[in-house]
């Protein structure tokens, strides 16, 4: 088992290296001259000597690989530079917003799982009945409906017309759990429902596949009740491929928070990303992109490790 | 395209029923897919002939009709400067289609060769390409698109590029998985043994047989691109005003959700219906192109 963990963790390292190179390249190479960005495009106002000094201070005269290594070294110690807009350290700005986004993502994830796993299992067991059709409609609708539009419609229904929930805003669960829950319902349900599409479908098809397996027939043949056949024999095995989808959805979940935070005016990392894009605040964007990618890689790593725990074939395989 | 010609030629060898008979046969086999295709064609016609169908100029401001709720005159209502929303939704179809087609094109043009090369040569080349793609996949689509737009600026071209690039890994991985299995087929081995060049084997023997899943994925990708474009437009970083797009109209509408909810309803419905149609068509194509599910 420990061998498997080490192997899998080592696999993540080259990916992380490429991620860091991409982030560095995306912003440092493609965005043109940082000196221009810092001086607000008014480079003409600086004397050539001042520009040269700034370039030297920022290490812009070094070869790119040297610049990259310097950037990486700083990033590894948690120094992601300063925001051009506010001059605040990027790490600080992100850490400020991260708990908010994590609260939203976790609750949404939980809602998505709580809806799609039971619905997918039921649809798979009761194939071609109304439950199955309902699951198909939910899945197709969840995939095709823009998350932000679903959010707007929920705000319109529950926040504006029926006025049962606050239409937007955010309260941290650490400040006031009851209020926090009220504010969390609409955004989390929106983001959660958006995740149900592919999860429900995967759960359904995986359930359908497992139910045709020999061991399920054997379980039935030895007279087990249908309920225990499904729960003990079929469900556990059908969960495995679903786990992969769950891990892969981490990216969609993180990306989804950007849009949802905008819809519900939640001051999280996504809004930070958006404001920094609108103001061309490259160091902040760089930081957010890096943190988001690391979050996704970590989630996938954890999923794979969990997969190894649940499925011995993977652990002992190559 | 040569591939299409080959498929057509293969079909004509077996039987040549009339076009009517064939389309009727398809319609009875996959009614939902055909209906989805009809919806897509309808939207495409709206996009191409927008000036014919739109009752008003989408940019024309009528200060006597500000924030007018839906009426016979303006079926979808008017916005805060008195523009007719129906006309804007019809014109918005243009951007959605354009972005969808070009973004999927970008993803196909970059992703397919990468997948071909990785799957064909395997080994170190494969490792390198796949690790880079893994890194690309680690960036959540929306955030990656935002970063690209932050760097390049928001314009129609950059939106198409950003969405296209985020879809590259999907097409590359799909192509690679196809190539890995096709590469061991007898006819491919035979081609290699007769001294065909790598290039020729990849393009003439492997690629034509790997197209079905790519067609399915491209159809689904169109839906994704329409969604992504709308999302970026809603965030205010997509195609910039005054060009009418569904996403940016929703952006405007959302700030007036209480006073003028109709502004947020129609463009959203348009996105939903078009994306749903692409997804349903993709599913139907998957079933039809895969002989195992077609018989079932």
Question: Which key phrases capture this entry?
Answer:
heterodimer; A: 318 residues; mainly alpha; 0% strand; globular; B: 296 residues; 14 helices
Mean pLDDT across every amino acid position of chain B: 88
The helix-and-strand class of chain B reads: mainly alpha
Shape of chain B: globular
SS elements, strand count of chain B: 0
Q: The biggest beta sheet of chain A, please?
A: none
Instruction: State mean pLDDT of chain A (0 to 100 scale).
Output: 85
Largest sheet of chain B: none
- Beta-strand portion of chain A reads under 5%
CA gyration radius of chain B, whole angstroms: 22 Å
Secondary-structure element order of chain A, N to C: HHHHHHHHHHHHH
Residue share in β-strands of chain B: under 5%
Overall form of chain A: globular
Instruction: Sketch the topology of chain B as an H/E string, one letter per element.
Output: HHHHHHHHHHHHHH
Q: Low-confidence parts of chain A lasting 5 or more residues at pLDDT below 50?
A: none
Distance N to C terminus of chain A: 12 Å
């Amino acid at each position: 088992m420990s061998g498997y963990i080490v192997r899998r963790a080592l696999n993540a390292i080259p990916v992380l290296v490429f991620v860091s190179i991409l982030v560095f390249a995306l912003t440092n190479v493609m965005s043109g001259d940082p000196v221009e960005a810092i001086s607000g495009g008014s480079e003409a106002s600086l004397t050539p000597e001042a520009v040269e000094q700034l370039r030297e201070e920022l290490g812009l005269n070094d070869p790119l690989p040297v610049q990259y290594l310097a950037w990486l070294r700083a990033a590894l110690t948690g120094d992601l530079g300063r925001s051009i807009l506010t001059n605040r350290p990027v790490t600080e700005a992100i850490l400020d917003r991260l708990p908010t986004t994590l609260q939203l993502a976790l609750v949404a994830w939980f809602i998505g799982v709580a809806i799609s796993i039971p619905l997918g299992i039921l649809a798979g067991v009761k194939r071609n009945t109304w439950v199955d059709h309902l699951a198909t409609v939910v899945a197709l609708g969840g995939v095709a409906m823009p998350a932000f539009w679903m959010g707007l419609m929920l705000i319109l229904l529950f926040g504006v017309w029926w006025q049962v929930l606050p239409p937007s805003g955010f309260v941290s669960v650490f400040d006031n759990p009851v209020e926090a829950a009220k504010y969390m319902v609409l955004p989390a349900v929106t983001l959660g429902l958006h995740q149900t599409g592919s999860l429900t479908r995967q759960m359904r098809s995986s359930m359908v596949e497992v139910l045709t397996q020999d061991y399920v027939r054997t379980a039935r043949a030895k007279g087990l009740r249908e309920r225990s056949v499904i729960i003990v024999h079929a469900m556990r095995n059908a969960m495995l491929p679903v786990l992969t989808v769950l891990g892969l959805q981490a990216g969609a979940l993180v990306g989804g928070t950007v849009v949802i935070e905008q819809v519900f005016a939640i001051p999280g990392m996504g809004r930070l990303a958006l404001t920094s894009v609108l103001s061309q605040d490259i160091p902040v964007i760089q930081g957010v992109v890096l943190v988001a990618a690391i979050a996704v890689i970590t989630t996938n790593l954890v999923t794979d490790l969990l997969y190894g725990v649940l499925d011995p074939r993977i652990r002992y395989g190559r | 395209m040569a591939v299409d010609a080959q498929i057509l030629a293969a079909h004509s060898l077996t039987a040549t029923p009339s076009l009517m008979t064939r389309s009727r046969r398809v319609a009875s086999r996959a009614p939902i897919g055909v209906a989805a295709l009809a919806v897509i064609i309808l939207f495409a016609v709206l996009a191409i002939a927008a000036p014919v169908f739109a009752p008003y100029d989408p940019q024309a401001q009528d200060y006597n009709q500000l924030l007018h709720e839906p009426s016979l005159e303006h079926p979808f209502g008017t916005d805060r400067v008195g523009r007719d929303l129906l006309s804007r939704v019809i014109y918005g179809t243009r951007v959605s289609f354009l972005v969808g087609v070009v973004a999927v094109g970008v993803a196909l043009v970059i992703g397919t060769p990468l997948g071909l090369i990785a799957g064909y040569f395997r080994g170190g080349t494969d490792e390198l390409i796949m690790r880079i793609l893994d890194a690309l996949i680690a960036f959540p689509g929306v955030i990656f698109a935002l970063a690209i737009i932050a760097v390049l600026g928001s314009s129609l071209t950059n939106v198409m590029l950003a969405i296209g690039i985020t879809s590259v890994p999907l097409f590359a991985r799909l192509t690679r998985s196809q190539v890995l299995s096709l590469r061991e087929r007898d006819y491919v081995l035979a081609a290699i043994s007769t001294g065909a060049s790598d290039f020729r084997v990849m393009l003439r023997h492997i690629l034509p047989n790997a197209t079905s899943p790519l067609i399915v994925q491209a159809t689904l990708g169109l839906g994704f691109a329409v969604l992504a474009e709308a999302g970026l437009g809603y965030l205010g970083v997509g195609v910039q005003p005054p060009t009418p797009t569904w996403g940016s109209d929703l952006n405007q509408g959302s700030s007036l959700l209480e006073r003028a909810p109709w502004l947020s309803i129609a463009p959203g419905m348009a996105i939903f219906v078009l994306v749903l149609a692409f997804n349903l068509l993709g599913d139907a194509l998957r079933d039809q192109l895969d002989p195992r599910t077609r018989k079932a």
